[in-house]
Design brief:
alpha+beta, 5-stranded antiparallel beta sheet, 13 helices, Vanillyl-alcohol Oxidase, Chain A, domain 3, globular, 518 residues, 20% strand, Uridine Diphospho-n-acetylenolpyruvylglucosamine Reductase, domain 2, 8-stranded antiparallel beta sheet
C-alpha cells in the first residue's frame, strides 16, 4: 500500500494552538504519533499532518477552528473501529477523541452519559454496576460513537431496540466550532438525523442513552455445527427467527473453526456455522425458548448457560483483534430460503483465510416494530443482516485477493480502497436553523454493491433511489459529519439521481454503526 507524506503545519500557528489546548498535539516524528495514527483496521496506513488528542469538548472546538482557518482536511477518530479508516486523514488534521472517557450513570433515571472516546466495554462496565445496560454491539473494543450514529445493532436490540432508539441526546461541535446540545426538545430535526444518519452534522463529543434492567447475569453463549448440518440450521432459523421471542438475540457466524478448546480437534480449520444466543429475560424461560435451536442436528459444541452480561458482550473480541487487515460488504435480506442459504454456504466452503467470516443478525422484535420515520435508520423489516467480512494477516503479501471473501469469492473485482477520506466541511458561514434540514426517504441508504456483475442474493429487498452524495467528507469514527445523505441546508440541494437497483446495505458498514458489528 502506498502512503502519503504528511504536509508540515506552520510552527507559529501550532504554538498558538498549544497555548489553548489541554490535550496532546502530535506531529510526525514526535513520540506517540505512530501509535496514535494507527486504528483497528491494520490495512489503514495514513499520515496526518497533525493529530489533536482532545481532553474535552473545548479542545474539539479549538481544533475545528484551527482547521477552518487553514483549510485543513479533517478526520475524526472515536473508537477507531471504522473498517474504511475514516478516522485517519492523509496530510490533514486528525481530531482524536479517544482520551475523552468520562461516563456518568443515573440509576434512578435509568440514563447514562458517555464521552465520545468511550468504548462499549467501558460503558457496559459502568452501567452493569447498577444492573443496567443499553443496546451496544458485540465487540467490546468498538467505540460508542460510530456505532451509535450509524444505527447500532447488538444482543439486546430485539428486546430494547437499536442503539439509536435509546439515544436521548448528543453534545455536538458543528463545523463552525459551535457547541450544541441536541435533544428532542431543543433540536428535534437534528436529533432525527443523528439517530442513524451516520453523518453531516458535526463532531459528537458526548452521548446520553436510555438504560434498561439487564443482568448482571444473562443466559447466552455459542452453539456450533459442522458443514453437514449447516443447511438444516439455516432452514430452521429462517422459520424460527421471525417469530422468536423479543428477549432472544441471535447472531450468526460462519467461518473456519478456530483452535478453541471446546471444539473437537478434528474439526479445527473446517467450515462451521455458529449461532451466538443471548436471552435478555428470565433464565428459565430462556432455556425453554432456545431448546428448539439446541435440538437441530448434532452440534459440535453447545455453551449456552448463565454468564455475566459483560462477558457475553466481550465474548467475540478475540476474533476481531486490532492490527489485522479487514474488508467487508453487507446486505439486508428478507429471509434464508434454500437458494439464499446455498449462496451463503458456497461462500463458506470457499473461505481460505482463518480470519474471514460471514456474519449476520436476526432482525425483528422491537427493531421492526419501531416507526421507520422516527429515525434516519430507514426501514426495519423482519429479516437478516448479512456481512461478508474478509480478514488477513498484516504480513500476507497477497492481501485480501486470495482469501475467503475477497474479489475472487464475491464474483467480481471489488472496488479499490479509497485513499481520500471524508472531511469536515470547514467553510465559513453560519449554521442554518434545524428546521432547514432536508429529510430523505426512510430507506435512502447507500448500497455497498452487488455480489458480482449482474448478480445479487435472491430475495433481497430492492434499493430505492437514493439521495446523491454531497461533496462533504467525513472523519468517520465519532464524527457526525460526512457519509450520510442528511445535511443542514448550507448549500442548494443537489439534483436527485436514481441509483441502479441493488441490495440495500446495512447503514454504518462504513464503521459508523450497523456492522456485524460491533
Amino acid at each position: 500500500m502506498t502512503t502519503t507524506t504528511a504536509a508540515p503545519v506552520d510552527a507559529t500557528a501550532l504554538s498558538g494552538l498549544r497555548a489553548r489546548f489541554r490535550g496532546a498535539l502530535l506531529r510526525p516524528e514526535e513520540e506517540g504519533y505512530e501509535e496514535a495514527r494507527r486504528v483497528w483496521n491494520g490495512a489503514i496506513d495514513r499520515h496526518p499532518a497533525l493529530i489533536a488528542r482532545c481532553a474535552g469538548a473545548d479542545d474539539v472546538v479549538e481544533a475545528v477552528r484551527f482547521a477552518r482557518d487553514r483549510d485543513l482536511a479533517v478526520s475524526v477518530r472515536g473508537g477507531g473501529h471504522s473498517v474504511a479508516g475514516h478516522g485517519v486523514v492523509d496530510g490533514g488534521l486528525m481530531i482524536d477523541l479517544s482520551l475523552m472517557k468520562a461516563v456518568r450513570v443515573d440509576p434512578e433515571g435509568r440514563t447514562a452519559r458517555a464521552a465520545g472516546g468511550v468504548l462499549w466495554r467501558e460503558l457496559d462496565g459502568a452501567t452493569q454496576q447498577v444492573g443496567l445496560a443499553t443496546t451496544g454491539g458485540i465487540i467490546g473494543h468498538t467505540g460508542i460513537g460510530g456505532l451509535t450514529l450509524g444505527g447500532g445493532l447488538g444482543h439486546l436490540m430485539r428486546r430494547h431496540g437499536l442503539t439509536v432508539d435509546n439515544l436521548l441526546a448528543v453534545d455536538l461541535v458543528t463545523a463552525d466550532g459551535e457547541r450544541l446540545r441536541v435533544d428532542a426538545e431543543t433540536e428535534p430535526e437534528l436529533l432525527w438525523g443523528l439517530r442513524g444518519g451516520g453523518g453531516n452534522f458535526g463532531i459528537a463529543t458526548a452521548f446520553e442513552y436510555r438504560l434498561h434492567p439487564v443482568g448482571p447475569m444473562v443466559l447466552g453463549g455459542p452453539v456450533v455445527w459442522g458443514l453437514d448440518d449447516a443447511p438444516q440450521v439455516l432452514a430452521f432459523l429462517d422459520d424460527f427467527a421471525p417469530t422468536a421471542p423479543d428477549e432472544l438475540g441471535i447472531t450468526i457466524a460462519m467461518m473456519l473453526a478456530p483452535p478453541a478448546p471446546f471444539l473437537p480437534p478434528e474439526h479445527r480449520g473446517r467450515p462451521v456455522v455458529t449461532l451466538v444466543l443471548a436471552w435478555a429475560g428470565d433464565p428459565a424461560a430462556g432455556q425453554r425458548a432456545v431448546a428448539p435451536l439446541l435440538g437441530i442436528g448434532r452440534p459440535l459444541a453447545e455453551l449456552v448457560r448463565p454468564v455475566p452480561y459483560v462477558a457475553l458482550q466481550s465474548m467475540l473480541d478475540g476474533g476481531a483483534p486490532h492490527g489485522r487487515h479487514y474488508y467487508w460488504r453487507s446486505h439486508r435480506i428478507h429471509g434464508l430460503p434454500g437458494q439464499v442459504a446455498g449462496v451463503l454456504l458456497d461462500r463458506l466452503a470457499s473461505i481460505t483465510s482463518p480470519f474471514s467470516q460471514i456474519g449476520g443478525w436476526a432482525m425483528g422484535g422491537a427493531v421492526s416494530r419501531a416507526d421507520p420515520g422516527a429515525t434516519a435508520v430507514g426501514e426495519r423489516e423482519v429479516g437478516f443482516d448479512v456481512s461478508f467480512a474478509a480478514g488477513w494477516a498484516p504480513g500476507d503479501p497477497d492481501g485480501r485477493a486470495p482469501h475467503g471473501l475477497g474479489p475472487r469469492r464475491l464474483g467480481g473485482p471489488a472496488p479499490p480502497q479509497r485513499r481520500r477520506v471524508r472531511q469536515l466541511p470547514l467553510r465559513r458561514g453560519r449554521r442554518r436553523p434545524p428546521g432547514r434540514l432536508r429529510r430523505p426517504p426512510a430507506a435512502a441508504h447507500r448500497p455497498q454493491g452487488p455480489l458480482g456483475p449482474g448478480q445479487r442474493l435472491p430475495h433481497e429487498r430492492q434499493h430505492r433511489p437514493q439521495r446523491p452524495r454531497r461533496r462533504v467528507r467525513d472523519g468517520g469514527g465519532t464524527s457526525a459529519v460526512g457519509p450520510g445523505p442528511w445535511t443542514a441546508a448550507r448549500r442548494p440541494p443537489a439534483r436527485r439521481r436514481p441509483s441502479p437497483p441493488t441490495a440495500r446495505s446495512c447503514p454504518g458498514r462504513r464503521g459508523t454503526g450497523w456492522s456485524p458489528r460491533r
